[in-house]
Amino acid sequence: MGAEQFQKHILTVITFLPLAGAALIALIPRRATTAIKAVAFAVSAATFAISVPLFFWFRTGTPGMQFTVDVPWITLLGQQAIRYSVGIDGISLFMVLLTTFLTMIAIAGSFAGIKDREREYYALMLMLETGMLGVFIALDLVLFYVFWEAMLIPMYFIIGVWGGPRRIYAAVKFFIYTMAGSLLMLVAIIAMAVMKYQATGVLTFSVQELYGLEMARGTQTLLFLAYALAFAIKVPMFPFHTWLPDAHVEAPTAGSVILAGVLLKMGTYGFLRFCIPFFPEASLAFAPVMIALGIIGIIYGALVALVQPDMKKLVAYSSVSHLGVSVLGIFVFTLQGAQGSLVQMISHGFSTGALFLLVGMIYERRHTRLIEDYGGIWAVMPKYGAIFIIITMASIGLPFLSGFVGEWLVLVGSWLANPWYAVLAATGAILSACYMLWMLQRVLQGPITRDENRALKDLNFREMVVLVPLVAGTIWLGVYPKPFLDRMEPSVDNVIRMVQTAGVSSPAAYQADAAAGEEAR
Amino acid sequence: MIGDFLWLIPAFPLAGVLVNGLLGHRLPRMLSGTVACLAVLGSAVVSVMGLLHLLQTPAGQAREIHQTLFPWISTGSFQTSVSLMLDPLSAVMACVVTGVGFLIHVYSTGYMAHDPRYHRYFTYLNLFTFAMLLLVLADNFLLMFVGWEGVGLCSYLLIGFWFQKPSAAAAGKKAFLVNRVGDFGFLLGMLFIFAVFGSLDYRVVFDKVAAEPGAITATLTAICLLLFVGATGKSAQIPLYVWLPDAMEGPTPVSALIHAATMVTAGVYMVARCSILFVNAPAALLVIAIIGAATALFAATIGLVQNDIKRVLAYSTVSQLGYMFMACGVGAFAAAIFHLMTHAFFKALLFLGAGSVIHGIHEEQDIRRMGGLMKWMPITGFTFWIGTLAIAGIPPLSGFFSKDEIIWYSLAGPMGHWAFWAVGVVTAVLTAFYMARLTFKTFHGQPRMPEEIRSKIHESPLSMTTVLTALAVGAVFAGLVNIPEAIGHRLHLPENSIAAFTHFLEPSIVEKKEAALLIANAAGNAPVGFVRPAPHVDHALELPLMGLTFVLALLSIALGASWYVRRPGTATALAARAPALYSLLLNKYYVDEIYSAIIVRPGMAFSRFLWRGVDVLIIDGLVNAVAWFFGIASRLFRVVQSGYVRGYAAGMLAGALIVIWVLSR
Amino acid sequence: MAWNAPVPFASWVMLSGVLFSIGAVGFLIRKDPIIMFMCIELMLNAGNLLFIAAARYLGIMAGQVFVFFVMAVAAAEVAVGLAIIVAIFRTKSTIDVDEMSGMRG
Fold first, then answer.
1. What is the pTM of this model?
2. Which ipTM was obtained for this model?
3. What residues in B contact A241, CB-CB < 8 Å?
């Protein structure tokens, strides 16, 4: 395969390489755990390595899809309706990179924690990676939906088999919750294709061809809600978030990293890619609701995190808070807000991924995640403490670390939309410092109160190798975000423009219109 | 040109951070400390070169050097870059930060010599210097905020440096959280500025405001008040001062550097930097003056009765910062910066002196168990006296010039008022008194420490006493750079040596005559009715008033000597006569307890309610209720599934019959 | 009616109905699975009879084709069913259908 061919099909290679790796792992004898780990890591590292050139080959300054491949897949009614159609723009580019990066980290981070059925575990992790990548590159709604659902299955098993004591409850709750949301989305997908067919006689599920589909106001509202529910559950937005703490607490460390780092972003990504461009008017009309839920999420998540006795639960609720910022940034419909939201998603992947790894690392040593079981461990684990502090600072938005860039841009964007949004959202900055620093105080600082903690070993080489890239990413994104911002700007701008064009008939006008429609019926 | 080397100023300490942070545990102690000191010395040298360059620039030319390093957060209309600016104000600040910082680094090599985490300490200290330099050298608000939060982080790390002590860990967290509350205001202020001016660069914002004075007074008032919320956090003003006294849990050199000389003055620097905004918002200035005056007086009264040597100094710092804000509030920004500079010298000196005492008598901090230390620690005692006299405002020490300038302008400044003047004088008297109390109880009178310690008391090592001496020299002479006009003219000094500091700062700070004009202009549009232009005060009054403060300060010191050396027990007797007042002061007006009762505990209770009540009970309860409903429903239907084949067959038959019946109807 | 006159279609339907009912009732009331199998065969053949009669009277051959299918399926079913019965007998030492309720929901 020539270089040009490779560049053309790079997305396909990236997406299906992990699946091939999973198949390879299935062939390795069950006992050869070292080989299994080596292959799993090598495959994920290779996937990441292949995805890195995307960053450099990506053409900035254009909102369009790049690296596209489009071949027929399933024929319906004599038309090549369902297609294998993939591509990335400035929004999905970073989601793909985040996925390959975090999967590699997560696999390297599971070597010590996973001690049984390694073969199945690593095969499932790689299958999960294929599913996640597929979601981000799919440009055909059916293809998207297939990946969206396919990804649930490995995650279900990862939580349900390698999880904590209440793993079955958590896994089932995660699965059903997500499934309940996505079934309505499936209905909406079919409805859109049918409407397009009735209007034009062309049966297609292509995302780009369905952009700008004309539909009645009431229909648009219904379809918007169907999509929004699926994504809101995934994000998760208040009040659909209760599956998250359970899933996080029960999932193994790597499961939590992937869950927080990538899976949650599918919700916010879905809003940007599907919900808003498909239904700009309905998005405008529902923006106040979404913003309100986002802001409630920020404050509510932070307050609840404050009183958690379990470190993983604390981080889980902090995710609710951080993703609230992301949702707010999307639905204020300003360039800064949406860009900030994307940066926040990447940053959250780094910082929360690292936090889950850090919690997992002391869990592997002490088999408890309760804050009260620790105290003063910085004295015996200096490297651990240092990295914990840096990551905490990134998470609470200290400038020159990644969290600040996203939060600040979202605040700028929301202030431009309505200053009160920014005022309320900024309280999150105070509250996040409260819960994170209080946890640090109780875990790292103070005297060592338990004898078991005196003999804790500091991070070993492998653990440092896992954490340092995350720290480096955090600092890079915080100090020099320009390469990120430049690449995402045209695509984000494009999405925002779709809404602003629709907004020419303002939300008020839309509501009046909708009311008139009701009466006419 | 110097403009190409500005980046070196913050880069030196950053390099120190990297060396000590990544390799520190492998380096020998000597090297670790030396690297840290050299890093700060390097940026001190570059800062001084920058200052000299500005001094040589003829007055007509722009005394402002910019250097853009790289673009930072830029999207659409929002553009910021990491770029530095050296103008007289930032040059002075950079010199104070690096100069005093260097001395304190050197002092620390002695003071922290036996600490097991020596390299960690110097990493933090260098990181602090880096952040502080970023704060003062930034040429836009957002980069200033980087430094602003960065120094907060270092403050957190250094207060909690001995994190094994629960009180230190708690104090560090408290400092960070209280500062975050302030930063919330600062953040909103920046957002407001961007929304109004479309940029966060100082030049753009200030030029736009200067172009149309008084045009948007109400907006500017809101912006200025929000920025000032940030300043109250960082510079420990009412109502956010509570963290500073607790911050004394950190190592003493840290208290000297961060919590006296540099970081806590960031708020004053910021207000002076934005003076053009503030003079166009007189209502905000009035708020600042009132808060500053109230803080000065309030903290001084607490300082009167505290028994911990560092806490007395901490409340003194809060009080002196109040002075600086009062100066800003009455429109005398240069006086505030002048006091900031002299205060950096004498307060660092006092803290380091206190550190030397604590070091010498084995970690004792309670002045009730000190006394007579002059005998053992003559250098510390002597230099401490210089600091005391300087802060008490005894001429010709530095504090005299800076404090009297503030007191004078609190009467004669653009926003002056006799009430501010009165507060200034009363606070000066209180300051002289509590400092005299502290000094006399520590260094004079009968030794009150246990016998076994008495034999081990020793003067501190050379690395510490040298620094004390150097700072004492600064505390004595720093005031001479800004001799007030009243004295200068009387003594017939050459014109360019009178108020030289103020004139040097003029390009960066709104000068007071112009301030008066702008304030008067904006006051016309001010939303608050009682903001009025400055009163006319006769300049002839300046010298007599100065004399009055001086005499009162001397009397306070004498009173201190009489109460605490000649007749010890007087103070105790007085305290016994007004026990309520005494315990109110001793317990710091119970402010911590009040905050805990009205904010912290209700907040925690509410959070717990949200978790247990809303999250688990209501939301998750609803989710589980749905699942439960389906569970019940399936349990009903499973009854039909008896497992007997014949049951199913009967069902099928019945079904078939029903279908036939329905179809055949 | 002549001896070789065609039997009216209604008679076939009646016969088939009677056979089917015997089979159905037998299946419901007997406990022995072998008998129950024979009852199933009876029902299937009742159906077959009706198919063939209908094919003859309507002149459509499809009915006869169906019968072949039914016979094949019936044969397969008996084979599998008897195997299952043997397997059950081995584990439970009884083939009384009332003892078998393992499929209870």
1. 0.89
2. 0.91
3. 619
